[in-house]
């Protein structure tokens, strides 16, 4: 792998679905476009990292962010996750945001509007100090513009105990639902409201 991730190109904007990443149920909601996946990652910066440890599945929620065509996340040096990545373990990293509850006239058709992405790959430790700083500069400045230049950079001790890990965004898929309720014709006369409601005020269209 290259030490410095390269920006996406027009030719690479579409991920090629694989047997494990292809969406089969409600395939019309699927996308393999990097633009859709990248927007969700950049909005959330929180992913669930799945792996197998000692024969058992493990999923850990962590801060996960993107620089160009790579995901970055960090753990303590020599942690379980770090050791597994160094050994070439396969990872599954998922992102999901539910923005609206979909209320229907039948219990069965209640649903949710959401964005989600599932990515697969292997991660390696970043050893280049320039890339190390750049990765953390990106996320800190995304949280607050210009903050990296105001704070103290990581010192030698902090760099030593931090395992910054990088995974290329090469395999995965995106899925979205953004619609009202699906109803059975015979339910339409039921005297109950149906529609969508925001999951929380942060997703409401109402302005203060």
TrEMBL record:
InterPro entries: Pyridox_Oxase-rel, Split_barrel_FMN-bd
Stretches for region Disordered: 1-20
SUPFAM superfamilies: FMN-binding split barrel
Pfam families linked: Pyridox_ox_2 (PF12900)
Biased composition (Polar residues): 1-18
Gene3D superfamilies tied to this protein: Electron Transport, Fmn-binding Protein, Chain A
Record PANTHER family: 5-NITROIMIDAZOLE ANTIBIOTICS RESISTANCE PROTEIN, NIMA-FAMILY-RELATED PROTEIN-RELATED, FLAVIN-NUCLEOTIDE-BINDING PROTEIN
Protein name: Pyridoxamine 5'-phosphate oxidase family protein
Origin species: Motiliproteus coralliicola
């Amino acid at each position: 792998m290259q030490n410095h991730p390269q920006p996406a190109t027009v030719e690479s904007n579409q991920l090629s679905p694989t047997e494990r990443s292809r969406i089969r149920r409600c395939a019309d909601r699927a996308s393999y476009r990097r633009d859709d996946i990248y927007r969700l990652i950049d909005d959330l910066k929180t992913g669930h990292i799945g792996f197998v440890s000692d024969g058992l599945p493990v999923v850990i929620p962590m801060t996960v962010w993107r620089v160009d065509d790579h995901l970055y996340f960090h753990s303590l040096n020599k942690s379980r996750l770090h050791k597994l990545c160094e050994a070439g373990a396969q990872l599954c990293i998922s992102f999901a945001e539910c923005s609206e509850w979909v209320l229907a006239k039948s219990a069965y058709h209640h649903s949710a509007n959401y964005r989600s992405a599932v990515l697969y790959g292997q991660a390696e430790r970043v050893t280049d100090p320039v890339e190390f700083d750049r990765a953390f500069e990106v996320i800190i400045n995304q949280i607050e513009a210009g903050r990296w230049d105001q704070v103290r950079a990581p010192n030698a001790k902090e760099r030593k105990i931090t395992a910054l890990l990088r995974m290329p965004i090469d395999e995965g898929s995106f899925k979205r639902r953004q619609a009202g309720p699906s109803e059975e014709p015979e339910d339409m006369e039921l005297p109950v409201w149906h529609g969508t409601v925001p999951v929380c005020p942060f997703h409401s269209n109402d302005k203060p």
